[in-house]
Sequence to fold (898 residues):
Amino acid sequence: MSQVNLRIDQIHEAIERQDDVTLNNLISEVSASETARLIEASTPENRMVIWGCLDVQKRAGVLKSVHGKVRQYLIDNTPQNALLDSLFLLQPDELADIDDDLPATVINAMIAAMDELRKARYNRVKHYPNNTAGGLMDADATAVRADVSILSVLRYLRILRKKEDEMPRQLDSLMVVDRTNKLLGVLPLSEIVSLPTDILVADILEQNFQAIPVDASQEHVARIFQDCDLLSAPVVDHNYRLLGRITIDDVVDVIQQQADNKMMRSAGLDTNTDMFSPIISSAYKRGYWLGINLITAFLAAWVIGLFEAVIEQLIALAVLMPVVASMGGVAGSQTLTIVTRGIALNQIGRKNLAQLIFHEASVVFLNGLVWAVAVAVIAFYWFGDPILGMVFGVALLIVLITGVIGGIFIPLVLQRMSIDPAVAGSVVLTTFTDAIGFFSFLGLAAIFI
Amino acid sequence: MSQVNLRIDQIHEAIERQDDVTLNNLISEVSASETARLIEASTPENRMVIWGCLDVQKRAGVLKSVHGKVRQYLIDNTPQNALLDSLFLLQPDELADIDDDLPATVINAMIAAMDELRKARYNRVKHYPNNTAGGLMDADATAVRADVSILSVLRYLRILRKKEDEMPRQLDSLMVVDRTNKLLGVLPLSEIVSLPTDILVADILEQNFQAIPVDASQEHVARIFQDCDLLSAPVVDHNYRLLGRITIDDVVDVIQQQADNKMMRSAGLDTNTDMFSPIISSAYKRGYWLGINLITAFLAAWVIGLFEAVIEQLIALAVLMPVVASMGGVAGSQTLTIVTRGIALNQIGRKNLAQLIFHEASVVFLNGLVWAVAVAVIAFYWFGDPILGMVFGVALLIVLITGVIGGIFIPLVLQRMSIDPAVAGSVVLTTFTDAIGFFSFLGLAAIFI
Fold:
């Protein structure tokens, strides 16, 4: 297979040959987050070989971006001191993201070794749940006062730099606050470097900016960043006091993770699914999902069972019935996808819902007419039975339209029950269209044949 | 339904009542990109009412972020002069993204009205395909030379600002070039504002940075930004000469769009699907997908048709056969999701593929044993036939394992055929598991019953 990834193969071959020189060269060429993907794609033994080749800096990057279960494995298999060396390189907000996976002894040793400033930042972020603005923020927002000149700001920043030896990462703007730390505005660095130095901050600060409440959900934060094309945004408490700053790189991670989660969870997989987790525990988790689907499948079987006598009279029904059910599922899932996306984008209201139902039903009705005639003709030629063909066509039309109705209402009802329609919608819809499909086809047959 | 979106309802109600004051108030509260979502979620008539309430600034924002078909509709229904007013507010790279939807007369009028600098930037971006780094970049990278001091840089920027009256949006760093415009490094603004002014640029420029080749795909650009946590990156030609700069807000759009595309296309929907597109054209597009699925469904029906005689002897087979097929689909789709994600993340190589097959097959074999016994018992109690139970259980085990094998190889083969496995994988897999499911269950029954 030429499509498979060459570098991964080279690395795994080097491990097999125990060729440490090649291995080190290959690994030094990939970024920390690519290394994280590489480690995820390796068996537990190979993971530790790759991990053993990494310097503290790269290990820090890997710990940050590797998925949950694999991170836990790496942490459990690394001596405490080596672990601490890498953890020291992470930002306080990054540490707060991963420290659930760290043993208490490591956390304590890490906190004990922090200087006061770092400890304060770490504790401030830890205070908030990971999936809120507070959990995403960095508590090192550099702030200045409004009544000073640009020259004073430049002086202040130079002193700060001398003292701390580095600036907050990805600093694109300063926060402007009053003496009670209340946020007044934002001052982009591009203004500071391009305007005359005697201008006062108060005269140029952007007041038309987005401040994010500390308890906003991470989904909400992602939406604000995208709506306003932000690079960073201040985080405030309920009194509008500045608490920290969120940078867009953390938001990108949130967006990526959301898309990933939906994909995994809609297949009944854990978000943290590890490609090479122990077989027994994988089997247990997957078995759960198979069990749910077994129940829904038996539901459809039960519907068929109601019509055993009809099928006995005409075996062709058994041959054709999966076609009806599957077409309903397909038509429904197209509508389901549109509505699920509409819900995610806040696009569905009571008024346009009625219009949407009309639109979708019309689309599928037109299609239904065409395909109903087509399948009726096919069934007639296949089994030589005109009534069978007619029943087949009408059942198809019914299941297409109910599939679309299901595609609209199932996600709305699920959302009302606080179940993510992107995750559960498709299972519920398939159960629904299968049942309707078998019932309408076999039911019509019972009446007319 | 309490879950539906209140603001959308209020806006649609205001339109219905022709209450312009309320309508204007409501719309003034939402951002341009939210307004774009709102317009997408409205019928064509309501779209024009909302569009009519927007000022030039907001119209520019909407044009930028609305989906293709709806953008076309807005453009077609807006007088040329009003359109031009909004287009002038867009950046050259944003213009280049949307100008495929503009009539030639508007494009010509727009270019004629551009000043030289803007025209040059626009043409430079237009030169490259939309889905490459060249199409994403802004051609206004502010560059300085390496042999000057920070003080000179600050002076230069102040002169530039005076001349152009604004700085490039989202400026977080300057590019450093030699006299032939060859890229030497990057200089973050946070360094400029915090270091002593007598330091030379050459001494502090970041040489360890990511430059993006102008012909890199947008997917590749997105990966680099995420791997390196960048806010912006220089774009260079093959001689490493600076051409422009990509900012992360454009990359976020790419990431979001990719996730959206996959979701839409895996349901056979156009990426630009418009909720309220004309019914005939919607019906035509959806009909195509229904037709493909009809063919795959008839394939499964044909497999069942091979065994009509067996079903005639034992109708219970017709009742239970959808259970077998559906369980194979579920088990396969879990593996398919893991492998598809692995392919997207470059995680699948020849070496770990074998290990992955072993892992997945073991997981599903363990599950298969448990569920095979369960369904055998259920079938025995339901139909009182021990042989039927045994056949059912064994067929389930077979379809689960072949489902997993399909889940591994189908995405790999599709990718080799340059078909996105995230889009087509699930249709192919379902066809495969349905056929295998019916064949193994009915085939075993033909032998043993």
Notes: The longest strand of chain A covers residues 183-188.
